[in-house]
Design brief:
The chain contains two helices and no strands. The chain is mostly helical. The radius of gyration is 26 Å and the shape is flat.
């Protein structure tokens, strides 16, 4: 392998860094780009936006409610 002008050998990307990562990022970018228009379009209707926001807020809270068991053995 030939050295550059500064005497440092260039680093090559492997299969993961040179092929898999850029391809995956490109696919994810396309998916996000296509979904963004749908999300913005759905949120333009205030009724749908309010119901979606309410479902996002209430669902995790209901699932995260701890179950407290108390016994009279104190």
């Amino acid at each position: 392998m030939s050295e550059g002008k500064s005497g440092v050998t260039p680093t090559k990307f492997g299969t993961f860094g040179g092929l898999f990562t850029p391809s995956t990022l490109t696919m994810l970018g396309v998916i996000i780009f296509l979904r963004f228009g749908q999300v913005v379009g759905q949120n333009a209707d205030p009724v749908k936006a309010e119901s979606k926001i309410q479902s996002l807020i209430e669902t995790p809270r209901a699932k995260a409610t701890p179950r407290i068991v108390r016994s009279d053995d104190t």
